[in-house]
Amino acid sequence: MDNAYRSLINAFIEECMPMAEKLADLFFNFERRWKFGDPADELFQPIKSDLHTIKGNSAMMGFTPIERTAHALEDVCALLIKRPELRDEQAAELLMEGGDLLVRMLQQAESENVQAGPAEEYILKLQDYVETARERRSGTDRRSDQEWRSGDDRRQGKERRQEPAAKGQQPAIGKVSDTIRVDFKRLDELLEAVGEGVIVQSVLSEVHQRMSLAFRDSAEVDMLGRAILSLDKIMKRLEDTLMDTRLLPISTLFGRFPRLVRDLSRQKGTPATLVTLGEETRIDKRIIDRLGEPLLHLIRNAFSHGIEDQEERKKRDKKAEAKITLQAKNLSDRVVISVGDDGGGIDVEKVRQKAQSMGLETTNLSAEEVKRLIFLPGFSTSAEVSELSGRGVGMDVVAETIQSLGGSIEVHSEIKCGTEFEINLPLTLTVIRSLLIEVDKELYAIPLSHVVESVKLEEMRIHEIKDFGMLNWRGKMLHVVDGGNLLDTESKSKKRTFCVIVSSGSRSKAILADRLVSHQDIVVKGLDSIFADSYTIFGATILGNGQVVFILDVARIIDESVAEKKTFTSPPVTPLQ
Amino acid sequence: MAKDSTVKETAPEENLLDFADVVNKQQEVAEKDKERTPELQIVTFLLDKEEYGITISKAREIIKVPDITRVPQTPKHVRGVTNLRGRVIPVVELRTLLGLQASKLSEHSRIIIIEIHDRSLGILVDMVNQVLKIPISIITKPPEEVVSTQTEFISGVARLDKRLVILLNLDRALLYNTDNKK
Known about the structure:
The complex is a heterodimer.
Chain A: H1 2-35, H2 44-61, H3 64-82, H4 89-110, H5 116-138, H6 143-166, H7 184-214, H8 219-246, E1 247-249, H9 251-254, H10 257-268, E2 272-277, E3 282-284, H11 285-306, H12 310-315, E4 322-331, E5 334-341, H13 348-357, H14 367-372, H15 395-404, E6 408-414, E7 418-426, E8 431-439, E9 442-447, E10 451-456, E11 462-465, E12 468-473, E13 476-482, H16 483-486, E14 498-504, E15 507-513, E16 515-523, E17 537-542, E18 548-552, H17 554-564
Parallel strand pairs in A: 2-4, 9-18, 13-15
Antiparallel strand pairs in A: 1-3, 4-5, 5-7, 6-7, 8-9, 8-16, 10-14, 11-12, 12-13, 14-15, 17-18
Chain B: H1 20-33, E1 39-47, E2 50-55, E3 59-64, E4 78-84, E5 87-93, H2 94-97, E6 110-116, E7 119-125, E8 127-135, E9 139-140, E10 154-160, E11 163-168, H3 170-179
Parallel strand pairs in B: 2-11, 5-7
Antiparallel strand pairs in B: 1-2, 1-8, 3-6, 4-5, 6-7, 9-10, 10-11
């Protein structure tokens, strides 16, 4: 019982406190704007509705002083709306005092000890003000007397307002936000709940859609539609706020590396410094947790494969001290993290030789494609496995980790100048915009961040070279893969209608589908490890109708297509020990 | 029934909807014997006419077969996934795992949701039979005639009157799924 009441109070404060703070802020706005003769009409509407809510809620909770204060403020606002000529600094100050009072009383409400005294005093003042204003209008000659009184009150109010601030009780404006520590699991639970809310919401919209077909011109259906629309907004806000709560600055991760670089630099006898940029970039904690290993590996690699020895650096006119750069930056809803060194770069010929010694056919591969081979399992160009980069994990594990986070990794390298790995990650792991497609009566979702374009096939011609489909898309030849083949569907249709161009990093590919269903926000649900072999999907989602739909892993699908090319026999590599 | 005695040592309480009553009854019956020998509480089910059992502590609930979505590139013994109250749960075709023909769904088909090592999985069975308490003493090594191919998933056989219940080691069976891949 007690607990239930407590949680009611908390809910009450949580709802009303932001409103009271906003009110105080808006009243402050009045002061500035009225001073310059700006009536600020548009502010009254939100003020009225917030006051109304606070009044209603506090009446329900039995906090009479709050209720009465809100009520009195409503009266004053009503008066000010009717009579713009009253809008002056004095009125604004009176309102500001009320805003602060509301905040203070809400703070007291937390300990269930709302003091009625100040409220009553303030209410009297408001009543006085209203009365004076009315009298002024009716032109009685007590006017000057009244003005004097309210002027005096105003001064008192000012004093009272300064007092609590001096005692460290914050006035409403500039309130220091409190922080609390929360178990991250809670946030996951919340997120899951929001996710389910999103699903229910899509059920609702579907029901509404059907109803609006069945009952045209029904006021109730329209009402439902509007309610769903505002639910949409609320869910979006809830989701955004929650997502934001989960983000941590990447400095928590980057902070681990200066020491590592120093140690490695001593171990190897290569002077090196680490430059970190964009440490304030924020990213989902779950991603940060899993990013440590890959970054560690890339930095180790820079030492063991990238940075040349002193002699070589001298020859190339480089500074003795090597530079390793760790940078993070935001790119719309993604975060790009790059790890770069100013070392020797990737020797394409060496990689090619290595690939051939592993039984790979590389003659048809471009230099860029050859560089990507380092992400294959068992690939290491270093003659002996060194202590530095060894440790049993390879670039394949790095790439795999990044992909499992819904990201991609690219390598840029210039011989003799350096190497840069660019990791492109989603900001958050969980809710993504996606395109739903249908392939042989099965639905799949493609993250919109990977979709470049979707086109009707009749406008495009697919060239077949041997058993390999190519599409000329904006002057670029793209590998075409049939959705049915890709996803092992049971009854494959011969004729597809649509083609979705997808990309990951700088590489693209075309997937053939039967139908484009819709754009949708989907909640990503992880898959059990039993599906580790399903390289075409990285997660699942549940649609409004309860149907499970898989999300395509575009990065891996594109990689796989590289491997599918005739130059590779599948499976392409057996790991070397 | 010994009404004055209280239940002291029973298997962890499980929320098995369909079988709560049966369990209670079984517990009462078993109370008499509990001094004599340690017991194992199992759920039994049918697969291709044979009766199998798993320990009840692994089973979370038993559900009718909902829509199952096929998953591309999965091993044969994974039938697909299903939506269990907003969670995506893999459904394992136990028959395939045991070297039997894949099942045709019937009105008796059920999915037993099990939980091992923080994972939730559904196993598809032809029919759920009952919840039993068996004394550990009646469990023997699997005889050869029962065990054809997939011995490793079978932890033992319990002989009850005329019945023969094959006990499965799900941990092994399901770890096998993931380890065998690499």
